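Handout, tutorial session.
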Amino acid sequence: MPAVIQGFLVNQLPKDPTAQSFPAVDNIPVNTTRMIHYPDQYKGVAISVAIFNQDGTNPCTFRLNGTSNPAVSLSSGGQFNVNDQNIVSVQITTAAVTGSCDVVAQISPTYLDTEANRFRRDRG
């Protein structure tokens, strides 16, 4: 079932057991706001993301898929996981003092067709 997320057509389901995937790790340094856009940077969509705040004293904030809602605050040393979702982008803002933030994602590559089309028996 295709979906459009942030103007990007996603043709795979996050729980598709036949989909290939690979890990990606991004480190966001101190006093930085960074947008990780998975289709541009990794040619795929994240199906799971873990955000680790490495700062021992300050929170970091994040937004998923370009939401305009208030950013979610992740406490010092905190961790946040999103699993079995289609995630096109993550925006992270780190504090200006000490720690960085790590983002670990499981990326499924961009498919040009749907799961149903990939497994039709009448393809010939």
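The second record follows below. Compare its token runs with those of the first.
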Amino acid sequence: MKKKCIEPAVGGVAMFAALVGTLSGLLCAGEAPSVKAVGAGEPQTEMDLPGDFNQYFGQRVNQFRDSERKVAKLDLDADLNYDGVIDSTDPADGGAFEQTPPGLVIGTGELSRFLVRVNPYRIDFEGDVVLTLEVAAINRDVASGTFESLEEELAATGRIRVWKNADCKELLLDSADPSKRFVEWVADHRTYPANLPGIYPRFFYVEGVKASPKHKGDLRVLVTISHRNRGETRDSAYGLWKAASAAAKDKDSGSDAGYKQSLTKSFRTSFDHILVSVSNLPHEKVFVSNNAQGNWIAMADRPR
């Protein structure tokens, strides 16, 4: 039996132009704008944030307070052209394919291997460098991409689980469990980047659990790497970010007290993500190396 091949979405430029035309027509008719599917594609939402394409990282030597400096380059990759090989130099394995629905299509009962590439920049600093892995569901019926309730979210989206290894013995994330939506790995300034292989994962496996019932690209796997002060948690760092945003407004209004305090932030966060769709059947694949990298594994055939 031939496996069903899921067609890719329409191009991002055409989709954006059609979406603008749809919204303009509604506004002219005096109706409230809404997000609707365009052609064979899916509507964009605010959760379809672009990857971090800025190639510059680190710190400019002659500029101590450099707003663009990052503590590392970060790249998340998967086998988006279904040939059994993950190649960061292959345009069909990344770029817009990662962030345009359907993204990566995984069949139910199938594992797909994701690669995390961290390219550290060696610089003297104090604090922690935190690698965060997150899953989120996307509501493509509204521009914000968010759901009003957990019940609505679970009914309208597929489900994935993220495992540390192919044997599926250590669960990292579960899109259907609010308590398993993110996981972090922390390296402090004494070990980063000397022994990265012992701290950050180089790969993980995503399992298709429940098929996406309505929209393609309704799930997102996001990875970030950020610099925090020692002892900061995810919540406290978010509080400091809000304080820094308020401080920037102080600068614009002529008050520099809060702005000077915000300058203690050293590096901006790097991020990358891949959209995921879950189908009842695996996507059609043409392996060029007999899946030698082990990027696709049936749950029934996984190592025990």
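Points raised in discussion: The chain has one domain: 47-229+264-301.
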